[in-house]
Structure formats: C-alpha cells, structure tokens
Specification:
Arc Repressor Mutant, subunit A, five-stranded mixed beta sheet, alpha/beta, D-Maltodextrin-Binding Protein, domain 2, 314 residues, rod-shaped, three-stranded antiparallel beta sheet
C-alpha cells in the first residue's frame, strides 16, 4: 500500500492540485484555463490525470458545466489545506504571522541580561505571539557570533568588542554599575566614599570561578582596591550571598532594582563612575521576518529596562 501511495504522490504535482482546486471553485474548464493561464486542452489533460490518480471521475459534465462527484467534494477542503501549506512553506522567507506562529526562537545572552529580559519578554510573547516561544543559550562573545553565522541562533544579545560586517548590531540597552548591600548593613553608611568602598568585603561574579573581573582595570586606574572574599558564577547568586551576610557586590543597576528589593537589599550609587554597560542585539545581515519580529520584541523589552530608576542613595 505504501509503494502505491508513493507512486501516486510522484505523479501528483502542483499544477494538478491547482487545476483541481479551480475546477471545484469554477466548475468550467474554460474559466479554469483563463484563471491559470493554461490552454483548455492542458486543463482537460490535467483532469484526465487527476481521474486516474484518484480513481474517480471527479466531475460529470452537465449543461451548465462540470458537477463534482461526492469524492471530489470530499477532497475540496483537503486540497485547499494542502495548497495553503505549500504556500506558507514557500512564503516563510517573506512572511511571518506572530499570532499564528508556533516558532521556537533561539537567543544567546549573558546571565544578567537573561534575568532582565526573560520575564518581560515572556509577557510580551503572551500578548503578541502566543504560540511562539523562546529559549536562552549561554553563548557569549565570539562564540555567539559564530553560532549566528551557522544559523544555530536567531539573535545574540550582550557586550561585543567588535561586530563583523556580515552581521548587524542594534543598541539594546545601557546600564550602570551600583553597589548592593543588605539593609541596615553596619558598615555601609548613607554616604559611601572611596575609602569605605576599599574596606568592605566584596563578592565577585565570575563564570570561571576565579577572582578576576572586567571592572578590575578600571578600579585599579581609579586607585580603588577591593577585598574580594568570595566568587560566585551568577549575579543572582551574589544577591543571595549579600542578603545573608555583611558582604557587598558591584552589579548592574537594572538587575539590582529588579531583584534587590525582594531580597532585602539596598542599592547604593558608587562613589566612582565606571564605564556604562552597553548591550547590543546582533543578528544576521539578512534576517527573516520572524527574526525581525523577535528583534523588535527584544528591543521593546530593552526600552522598558532603560527607564530611569531612582537610586536609593547618592
């Protein structure tokens, strides 16, 4: 039975399906020929092939035109659905309907951006793309850019030293660093100066588990030395440590305002001004409409994160 079906499928082409659909709609071979730009003899030949394939007359000639058989009428919705599916497949590169899409998007991002973006993005998807979903991957830097080139990602967000010409980058958000400490910390006054910053116990965030930090050169250039007493791989881990100890941590300000209050943390502006955190959204130079929609949604969420926060201390 499978061999017979495969043989028939090989004989069935798109033109035959179009002829069948138009015959079901118009019931006249001359009208179908005009609609599809075919000769009347080509339509007659297609109908003969269709009758052989479906083993049914499909249409009976009547004075007013062609009358479909019961089998032809049963085929009508299936032929419409089949042609619609083919049309959708061929149009994937030019059309994207977020309300009907069930696409799974792949986004690379560092941990602090996942923590900032995932929740608002989920709410945004629920309203504008309820059938779509997204997954965050931990690829960073050059690794993420290479994954984009291999079509393993739809979007990469984060901090990139350089974006190659074959990829496009869009500014996503800008953030600054702040210091978090538990409320009523005995050694963190309302006005924090440089000397006091040196004397505090700091928790360092490092994926590698070491005590290095991208902030280290800047702090050293400003003459500030920190006493780092612990290293954890995630900013949210650092929040938990700070909430249950007298240690402090230097973290992105938006992340501190988003998660600090629930943990009983107070946000302090730093006594020194460090370089801002600039995050980019990077995609392929010729993205498909689905990726363009995703980029629009991520940027909308990023705009929400750029709203100014009121600092607890200055």
């Amino acid at each position: 039975m499978v061999d017979i079906d495969e043989t028939k499928i090989r004989k069935l082409d798109g033109t035959l399906l179009l002829v069948l659909r138009e015959l079901l709609r118009r019931r006249k071979a001359t009208d179908v020929a005009r609609r599809l730009g075919l000769s009347q003899s080509a339509v007659s030949h297609a109908l003969a092939r269709l009758r052989e394939l479906f083993d049914d007359p499909l249409f009976v000639r009547q004075p007013h035109g062609l009358s479909p058989t019961r089998h032809a009428l049963a085929l009508a919705p299936k032929i419409d659905a089949l042609l619609e599916g083919v049309s959708d497949a061929l149009g994937l590169s030019t059309r994207f309907d977020p309300e009907r899409s069930a696409r799974s998007f792949r986004i690379a991002a560092p941990e602090f951006l996942v923590a900032l973006l995932a929740g608002p993005l989920l709410e945004d998807f629920a309203q504008k793309g309820p059938g779509a979903r997204f997954g965050f991957l931990p690829s960073l830097g050059e690794e993420a850019l290479q994954a984009l080139r291999r079509d393993e990602l739809d979007l990469a967000v984060g901090r990139f030293a350089r974006v190659p010409d074959d990829l496009t980058a869009t500014r996503l958000l800008e953030d600054r660093y702040c210091l978090v400490a538990r409320k009523r910390h005995p050694a963190v006054p309302r006005k924090l100066d440089r000397q006091q910053l040196r004397t505090l116990d700091h928790v360092q965030v490092s994926v590698a588990g070491d005590f290095q930090s991208p902030l280290l050169p800047e702090l050293e250039a400003l003459g500030i030395e920190r006493r780092v007493v612990a290293s954890v791989p995630r900013f949210l881990n650092a929040f938990l440590v700070v909430a249950s100890s007298d240690a402090v941590a230097i973290v992105p300000r938006s992340l501190a305002h988003a998660h600090g209050p629930a943990l009983g943390l107070r946000v302090h502006d730093l006594a020194v001004r460090l370089r801002p955190i600039r995050a980019l959204a990077v995609c392929r130079a010729h993205p498909d409409p689905g990726t363009e929609w995703l980029l629009e949604r991520v940027r909308a969420v990023g705009d929400g994160q750029r709203r100014p926060h009121r600092a607890t201390l200055r």
